[in-house]
Design goal:
Blueprint (H helix, E strand, L loop, with lengths): L7 H4 L16 E5 L3 H15 L9 E5 L7 H9 L6 E3 L1 H11 L2 E7 L5 E9 H5 L20 E2 L6 H13 L11 H8 L3 E2 L35 H10 L5 E5 L2 H6 L10 E4 L5 E3 L10 E3 L2 E4 L3 H18 L30 E4 L6 H5 L1 H9 L7 E6 L2 H16 L5 E6 L3 H10 L5 E3 L1 H11 L1 E8 L6 E9 L14 E4 L5 H13 L10 H8 L2 E3 L39 H10 L5 E5 L2 H4 L18 E4 L5 E3 L9 E4 L2 E5 L4 H18 L27 E4 L7 H5 L1 H14 L14 H15 L6
Parallel strand pairs: 1-2, 6-7, 6-8, 14-15, 19-20, 19-21
Antiparallel strand pairs: 3-12, 4-12, 4-13, 5-8, 5-9, 5-11, 9-10, 16-25, 17-25, 17-26, 18-21, 18-22, 18-24, 22-23
Helix pairs in contact: 6-12
């Protein structure tokens, strides 16, 4: 009868602490089965065990099945959540069972005197003889496998996938040009394939494995119940001529042909890893690696597992021999149930205790784990992210661990820079690879350091842009964009797009300041009573270090005060709004989403916890004020969002690999519910570390726009050139003018007015 564990749906997603303890007094040994054939054999085993004296009042076999149990991975889930006890897995599947479901090996199959077998690649002898005499000759070259139709017992199986494919990667016969997409690389090399389970989420987490990997599968089922699944199914695929190459275990062909087949072993050949061929009997010399035997896996505490060990010891002792009657039960005979190797391998002779090899990595051996890691070969060994503060490097380190936990390649590493400019220099020098930069910093990185943008933040509308706004408290209605003289101001950082560049040119456009060449900082410090403009006293931006009052409103203490890094609490767009909230200024220049993301309970930091969005208003360019959600109609400019940049000399392939690492990472870590690491959340009392907290996702910048001018646009390019003339900091390559030219200043004012009135930036 069908048994459907009703608690499975309830338990999925619970922590181990919430799971009920295993009842050690239970007699049940619950086998998880995935199809009718397994259910029939399990029921026969149940009946046979019930008749044994050693099992009476001690063990009772229960067969767990049902419409929802369609593959081995569902069984692994049931065992983890204690709705089943055991199942048998291939040693390759054991790694997945251990990593994802925390299952452990209990007993392993024994094959005569061996506890392992060989991975072999099999072809029909007629196919080989058409190309070359197999005796002492090479099967042309292994590259000649290219385009051949392939049959595999299943994705992730040791002999049927990991060993042959990893060897082809290692030897370079299958070229690896990308990372984390080895199935795609394999599919490009071979022709049509049947790789059961290749499209399920566990082996296809990004949904990018091509449908081609299932083209040869029976009725396109392509899971562990497919007719061509398993070693016998893969051989059937080859035998019927559906495929031309099959990845098998050394005993598969021999067991499948038996004594009743019209074919013999001589009708098939082994393809060796050096390109030569051999007869089927020579598998010990012609193979692709040794594989640890199949194992029965379970979950639980030591005493529960020991009880299961004792059960399997008795089970094997009682039923390992061939059945002596037609209704007798044999553990290693599947013929009465309409298939091969059902529940246990037909060529097994015993079940043995795994002993000290009680974890998946101990059981399968270090050599196998190395071969498994070879599937993750990546042309780029590591990508180095440049950070500018201890808080950032701590978040970067958490991201490193998160990426490692998902086995993503290349490895991520963290590099510490003094500030954004130092990081630009490190990337140019080849000492770092990536950093996320504001639009104005992206301009500097591109013009003066040869860096290029490859990806950008998006805030939910797929435009990779946002609006620069000016924000004031509703309680100060007298403040407009036209009367900022002698006010207290909050800037996100000197030379940042929304929090410096646009405010500066807004003041110039409205003729509230008319700075002389190289005297912008003088003009700003004279205009505002006090402010927080992080970085304004740093020599890279302000060699003369004028404008002390432009740092007076900053919050950090000691040497961190007014630094253009996260060490200053009021740095960045969120920091600028915090400056306004805490009274550092009467107006904040920031990005459009900063108010929304830090009010109405969206930010649990103490400074933002009880803030209401309707206590703040936007200052419009026409002198009016509007609500904080009306930034599309009330803004200072539209800007490109922060971009992730790398060195311009990086190849297109390297840029693609770096982008894909970030893309795969955000598939796992973009949501706020992830306890391990969240890309777009900086934690309590921190903001905008590595990425903007208001970002929703990263988007790839099209290849034709991976240039700072094309990405930012001509208008922003002109703005930045004029800004650098006004500032004359060491980040520019232009020389300060020797004297003030009033007509030149008026020209700039007129040009700014024209540009801003015609959709200035985008």
């Amino acid at each position: 009868m069908w048994y459907i564990p009703i608690c499975v749906i309830v338990l999925v997603g619970q922590s181990l602490a919430q799971l009920p303890p295993i009842d050690q007094s239970k007699k049940e040994v619950r086998f998880c089965v995935i199809n009718d054939a397994e259910l029939k054999k399990c029921e026969a085993m149940k009946k046979a065990v019930a008749a044994e004296a050693w099992a009476k009042d001690k063990y009772e076999v229960v067969c767990i099945s049902g419409p929802a149990i369609t593959d081995k991975f569902k069984c692994m889930e049931l065992i983890e959540f204690q709705d089943a006890d055991v199942m048998t897995v291939d040693s390759g599947e054991l790694v997945l069972a251990g990593r994802r479901f925390r299952l452990v090996p209990i007993v392993g199959e024994q094959y005569g005197t061996k506890s392992d077998y060989y991975s072999v690649v099999v072809l029909k002898a007629t196919d080989i003889l058409m190309t070359a005499d197999y005796t002492g000759r090479q099967y042309e070259r292994l590259q000649d496998l290219q385009g051949k139709r392939v049959c595999s017992p299943g994705m992730g199986t040791a002999a049927g996938w990991v060993l042959p494919i990893s060897k082809m990667f290692e030897q370079g016969f299958i070229k690896v040009t990308r990372c984390n997409v080895h199935v795609q690389q394999v599919s490009k090399f071979f022709g049509e394939m049947c790789i059961p389970s290749a499209l399920i989420a566990y082996y296809n987490p990004y949904g990018i494995n091509p449908m081609k990997v299932c083209d040869l599968c029976n009725k396109k089922i392509c899971d562990t119940n497919d007719l061509y699944s398993g070693f016998d199914g893969a051989f059937d695929c080859l035998q019927k001529g559906v495929g031309q190459v099959a990845f098998l275990k050394d005993s598969t062909v021999r067991m499948a042909l038996g004594n009743d087949s019209s074919e013999t072993l001589n009708d098939y050949r082994l393809l060796c890893s050096d390109g030569s061929v051999a007869t089927m009997e020579n598998y010990m010399a012609c193979n692709w690696g040794r594989v640890k035997s199949n194992a029965v896996v379970g979950y639980g505490k030591a005493d529960h597992l020991n009880k299961l060990k004792m059960f399997f010891k008795e089970l094997s002792r009682a039923f390992s021999a061939p059945a002596t009657t037609s209704d007798g039960f044999s553990l290693f005979d599947s013929s009465p149930y309409g298939g091969h190797s059902i529940l246990f391998s037909d060529d097994a002779t015993d079940l043995i205790d795994v002993g000290s090899r009680d974890t998946y990595h101990k059981y399968v051996s270090d050599d196998y784990m190395k071969r498994l890691n070879s599937l993750e070969i990546c042309p780029v060994k590591s990508v180095r992210w440049c950070t500018t503060s201890e808080d950032e490097i701590n978040k970067c380190s958490a991201m490193v661990l998160g990426i490692q936990s998902k086995s993503l390649k290349p490895d991520l590493r963290c590099v510490m820079g003094k500030n954004a400019l130092d990081c630009m220099q490190k990337i140019q020098d080849g000492d770092a690879d990536l950093i996320n930069l504001d639009a104005a910093d992206t301009y500097v990185a591109g013009r003066y350091y040869g860096l290029v943008p490859i990806a950008a933040e998006d805030y939910g509308d797929d435009t990779m842009s946002y609006y620069a706004v000016a924000v004031a408290k509703k309680s100060t209605p007298e403040i407009t964009i036209f009367n900022l003289k002698a006010k207290r101001a909050c800037f996100s950082g000197v030379n940042m797009a929304a929090g410096w560049v646009i405010p500066v040119f807004t003041l110039i456009e409205t003729q509230q300041i008319l700075p002389e060449t190289c005297k912008l900082y003088d003009a700003m410090s004279e205009f505002f009573f006090r402010a927080c403009a992080p970085g304004i006293l740093e020599k890279q931006y302000n060699p003369r270090q004028v404008g002390l009052n432009m740092c007076e409103a900053c919050a950090a203490g000691s040497s961190d005060k007014c630094k253009r890094t996260s060490r200053e609490q009021y740095f960045s767009d969120s920091g600028s709004f915090r400056c306004l909230v805490e009274g550092g200024g009467e107006i904040a220049f920031t990005r459009s989403l900063a108010v929304r993301d830090n009010t109405d309970g969206r930010n649990q930091d103490i400074w933002a916890r009880n803030r209401r969005s309707d206590d703040y208003e936007l200052l419009c360019r026409n002198g009016h004020r509007m609500g904080i959600d009306q930034w599309k109609d009330c803004n200072l400019a539209k800007l490109r969002s922060p971009a992730i940049v790398t060195a311009g000399y990086k190849s297109e392939e390297d840029r693609e690999i770096m982008w894909e690492l970030l893309d795969y990472a955000q598939n796992y870590f973009s949501g706020d519910a992830n306890d391990q690491f969240t890309m777009f959340d900086s934690g309590l009392n921190k903001h905008d570390l590595m990425f903007s907290d208001s970002a929703v996702k990263l988007l790839k910048i099209p290849k034709e726009e991976q240039n700072y001018k094309k990405w930012l646009g001509d208008y922003f390019d002109r703005l930045m050139q004029m800004l650098h003339r006004y500032q004359c900091g060491s980040v520019t390559d232009s020389s300060p003018a020797s004297s003030t030219n009033t007509s030149l200043v008026k020209y700039f004012v007129t040009l700014i007015a024209i540009l801003t009135s015609t959709a200035l930036l985008l």
